[in-house]
Here is the input.
Amino acid sequence: MRNIDGNETFLLEEYSQCFSQMRHYDTVKLSLAKFAFSFYSAVAAVSFGLERYFYYELKTKGVDLFLGLLLFLTFLVGFLILVMLARYRKYFVLVARQVNGIRRYFFDIMGSKEGKLRNVLYTDSSKPVGLNVKSTYLLLMFLFTLVNAVTLAFACFFMLRYCRAGSWLVIVILFLASLAFQSLYIRAELKEAKI
Here is the structure.
């Protein structure tokens, strides 16, 4: 076994720091998911309770304006959560690629010469890809995209009911446009040329 020089000591420290950073991004992803699910659940419960009490019990139409604005604000917060998840996915991909490159370097100089080291982890520094369908980041982003689109559709429903105007077609079009816009944002943010 050969000695490790100063450059390789730096790479080992870089590997350790990058691995810690990957764990950090996974923790942040879970924290964002917990926050978002709690936030959406609280807003849904408050909206349902207010709508049931004020609209059906007291026959007050003014609650629709409040609910429309509350749900629109919820959509904006949800979109910001989506933006943060996309950014963290980009950072995660960059750090994971660095780890893979360092792993390949050490595997090449140590593992292949002695034939004792067997690697089962990625050593390709072009992996992982940003838009990986199997990624939990992407799964969460598309789930939040769907919830955000539903939230925006309900905001539109309450605003139209308050104004006594509109139709279901407007709500459906807004729902589909929201899905498309958010999906295109995710795709554009995680394109390989940007990572």
In short: Helices lie at 6-57, 63-114, 136-163, 168-189. Residues 6-57 form the longest helix (52 residues).
